[in-house]
Structures are given as C-alpha cells and as structure tokens.
Amino acid sequence: MSGGWRQPPDEGRTGSGKLLLGEVRTSLLQHSVELSRPAARDLLQLRHGERVVSSTRPNQQVRSAGLLTGVDCKLPTGSRRTVRGVGTVLAQAVLTEGRLLQSSARVRIGERGTGQRRPWGHYLARPGTIEPTGPVADEDLMDGFLGAPSPGWLDLSAIADRLLADVQTRGRLDGRAPLESSRTRLLWTAALGPPAAHFTIENDTLRTLRLTLERVDPVAVAAFCEDLALHDWLLTTLLQLIERSGLGSASGAEPTRVLRPAVNHLLHLWMPGARLTGVLAQAWESLETSPGLTRQWAAAVQRVRDHLASQVSHATELFDRLQKTPLANGVMTQLVNNITELGDHQPAIVGAFTRRELRRLSDLLKELKAGQAAYDGEDQDWLLTLTHSAATAIDAISTAVDIGFWSTELGRRYLDAQRAAVRRGVPVRRIFVLQSSDQRAAERIRRVGCTHRDLGLNVRMVAVRDLPAWVRRPMSDFIVFDHAISYEVQTDQSGSDDSAGPDLMVASTLLVLSEDKVARRRQRFEDLWVIAGPLDGEQPVNGDAPPDGGDTPSGAEPTP
Q1: Can you give the pTM of this predicted structure?
Q2: Torsion-angle region of residue 159: left (phi > 0), alpha (psi -120 to 50) or beta?
Q3: CA 275 and chain centroid, separation
Q4: Residue 179 predicted with pLDDT over 80
Q5: Which long-range contacts (CB under 8 A, 24 or more apart) does 267-270 make?
Q6: What pLDDT band is residue 555 in, cutting at 50, 70 and 90?
Q7: pLDDT number for residue 289
Q8: For residue 511, what are the β-bridge partners?
Q9: What angle do CA 141, 144, 146 make, to 5 degrees?
Q10: For residues 506 and 50, which has the higher predicted lDDT (pLDDT)?
Q11: Which residues are within 8 A (CB) of 103 and not within 5 positions of it... i.e. 6 or more apart?
C-alpha cells in the first residue's frame, strides 16, 4: 500500500538527517479511567526536572522529555554486512486523551566514519544520532531494519518496549484497562527521495512504513509515524472487538457487552492527521487513498452503531411492553438501575453471584409462563412472598411433613406472615391431616392448630382413617393462594432407626399455575374441608359414598 505526492521546495529543515530509523509501540493505558491532564503530566515525568510537554488542541496529548540510550552495536543491513554503529537512541512516551500510550524510539544515521570509534562526548553532543564506523548504503540499512532482525543488531524494539513497560507499571495506575487489546508495533524509515509512503501490514501486530521525502525533519516525521501508529491501533482494536463479539453470528447481549467499551473509550479518539501540516499532511492523504484507513474505520464504526441502535430499539420496545403490564410499578426500573450502578469495581464473585441470581429469576419467570416452576428441596422465599402477596384467600393442607416445620425459623416467619394476611382481611383456612393413629402426634398437631386458631386462622383437623372411601387418597401438602396458584411440596423418606420409622423430608417444591390443576386442588381442599372437624371435637364422617352418589366428587382429581 503506497502513495506519492509532490513536496513544495520551501519545506523541510536545513541540516536535517538524511536517514531516520524508528519504532512506535502503541497500547491502551492500563488504567480503569482516562487520566486528567495533570495526572498524565505527572505519569510522564520520567526524569526529575525534565520538561513534560502537553497540549489540548486538537486533542489532549502529553509528551515526555526525550530519553537517551547509548548504543555500540551492529547496524541492521539487508546484505548482512557487518557495520558497527555508535551513538544514542532518542525515546519518548506519548499519552493521547489520557487513554492511549505510545513509546517512540528513533535514530538519525549520521556521518559514516573511517572505522575509528570516537570519545563518548562526541556522540552525546549529537543526541538521537548513530554514526556508522564504516561505509554503508541507506537502502541497505532500511532493508535490514525493516527485515528479519538478527541477534546483536541495533534493537529499537527493546528500548521502546522497556519505556512502555516502565510507564505501564508505575504505581499511579490501577492495572485495570476497560477492554482487552493487543500492542502494535510500527517500524519506519524515512529517507531522501521523491515523496512517497509505503505502508505494509506484516502480521497481526507488526506494521512497516517506508517514507521518502525531499527533506527530512526528524521531529515532524516521528510525529507523523506516531499518528499513523495510533490510528492503525484504533482500527485494529475495533476490528478485533467486532470479531470477538460475534457480531452478525452471536445472539443475546454478548455483542453489546463486548462492543460498548469501544464506544465509551475509543471512537472519539479518531482524528487522523489533525496535528500534521504541509507535506506530511499530504503523506497522510496518500495513505487515505491506499490503504484507506478512515474508510475502513467509518464502515466498522457504522456497523457498531447500527448494532447498538438496534439494541436500543429492542430495549425501548421491551420497556414499552413492560409499561403496559401489571409489573410496571417501578420495580423493574429499580432493578435495572441497581444492576447498572453495581459497577465493574466489585469483586469477581459478586458479579458471578449477581448473574446467577438474575439467571435464576429469568428461569423462574420462564417456568411460570409455562405453568409450573420447580425448586429442589425446601423453598425459603416463595412461601413467604406468596403469603405477603395474597389478597383474596389462602387455603392450605398440612400433613405429617409439617409436624416439625412450625418450630423452625421459616415456620415462625410463615406463621407471622399468615397473621399479617388475616389482619389485612385475607381469610386463611388450614386443614391438618393426621395420617396415623398415634395419639401423641395427634395431640402435637392439635397444639399447633390451636396456635394457628389463636392468631385468627380458620383451622380444622381430620384423620385419614376417618375419611370416606371416595376421598381417601394419598395426601400431600399444598397451599392455594388467591384461587390462582398452588404451592406444593413433594416428600421423600430419609433413613432413621427402626424404632422411629422413616422420617419425611421435603424433596422438591412446585409452583403450579395451570388453571385445571389449580381447580382440582381447590376442589380437593373443599371436599376435605366439609369432612374435617374442629380441633377439639370429633371429626364427622359423612358416609362412605360421595354426596352426589357417584364414585368421586365432582372435579376431584384421581391423585393429589
């Protein structure tokens, strides 16, 4: 990908270097929020007393002072000739909009020597310049620098990487970036020649740039390469996020979850060539023709925004539907607000717990829509919530599984909830079913029943042995709330010693909404209510035949 343009004769800086080699590393600052301008200046104060430069137009950018690293090593050559270079590498850190961090290292290839190494004072007087100790062609150096490196060669990558790591690991940063991203590298060369730019994407993280100019200004060229590296990183990261999100193939909220950080933290940073003037602005325009970074960026951004807009439209539709349901009492809005305010700063276990509870709530609603919801073991929430929510009637059947229940914490809370229901005018009826002839069990149930009666509940009691044949079927606990939903428990036997016999345990809890099933539970309760008697009297026996002379009462279910 390349482009050419004409450079006006009055541009350039007299005495500038003939050949520049450089590398730019770009990454997301490892911090959860954007740094303010003062905080950014403090972060890039890498040496005490060194001047940090900052600007706010056209965007906020902070640049550290230049850091010099002395080198005495082989220079990279495409021909693999051994040419030694001595001098210093100039490196700087740049932070844009408090979010994108770059380390930039460059050298100017100075005068070719005669094989003699000069005193260090000579090289320190020429910062950012390396002088070859022997003759070597610029083209040979560019080919070697942009090609495969060899051990012992000039390594700007190590210098740039060390500077980047030094800034990223400073104690002022919390180490929590708002999104996952990769570092990118731009290797670049700038030499004298007809104005042209050749930009190549070598692999997922490496790019190369060959730049030729009629005059070479090291500061301006380095700024151009940093700008190109920054915008290439933005485009690369956005495309990676789109791919990672599964946009176009994945459903649900996952694409939105992955892409939203890009909208919040990246999209506003796209400002290509805003700091460039003259011939280097023309160089950027040539790159807009090929490879056309801005065209690809605009297409990717539009795709992200279209997806988010569709999600907003869908969310608006759902909200409108919610507003028309009986649930539109502010609870759902409060739930959404609380979820969003929980924030990403919570420990991972809090997020995992919240997601699991929300998933459980979603599954419950789905099961209720299907007509029946199940819970393994004894429920702790449904019973109390339904009792507090009842407005018309509560009809309950209690069997042997209830004997020890009323002395538990849940039993006491349930009893309090029933008393509150009675106080707000909801009639509560309960039938205690005695399944054995054990007088001690009967007396215990009678005492529990008296407690219920004293709290205002309408209580009756019946023994299975006294039931007529047409109503004598296996018993199970259930509670019908407002004639609309049945709360039921299914029991299992746990082993115990032979003298005591098996103990009954709650194996699962069901919520039944099916109109037919609830109607059968209601009929079952009414049949038992007619037969049952008061706690302190004899249970009446209404005969061995059903009232209508049939085999079973009208509407009664064959099994509980």
Answers
A1: 0.62
A2: alpha
A3: 35
A4: yes
A5: 267/301, 267/304, 268/97, 269/59, 269/96, 269/97, 269/99, 269/100, 269/230, 269/234, 270/231, 270/234, 270/294, 270/297, 270/301
A6: very low
A7: 85
A8: 373, 487
A9: 105
A10: 50
A11: 24, 25, 91, 92, 93, 94, 160, 161, 163, 164, 167
Rounded Cα distance, 30 and 175, in Å: 5
Q: What is the CA radius of gyration of the chain?
A: 40
CB atoms closer than 10 angstroms to residue 287: 24
Q: In this structure, are residues 224 and 106 in contact, taking their beta carbons and an 8 Å threshold?
A: no
pLDDT at 399: 79
Cα distances from 271 to residues 52, 57, 120, 220, in angstroms, run 23, 11, 41, 17
Tokens of 296: 């690809």
* Secondary element (H or E) of residue 321: helix 293-323
Q: What is the DSSP string of 208-271?
A: EEEEEESS--HHHHHHHHHHHHHHHHHHHHHHHHHHHHTTTT--TTHHHHHHHHHHHHTGGG--
Identify the residue whose tokens are 């590298």.
185
Helix (H, G, I), strand (E, B) or coil at 476: coil
Cβ within 8 Å of residue 215, ≥6 positions away: 7, 11, 12, 13, 16, 192
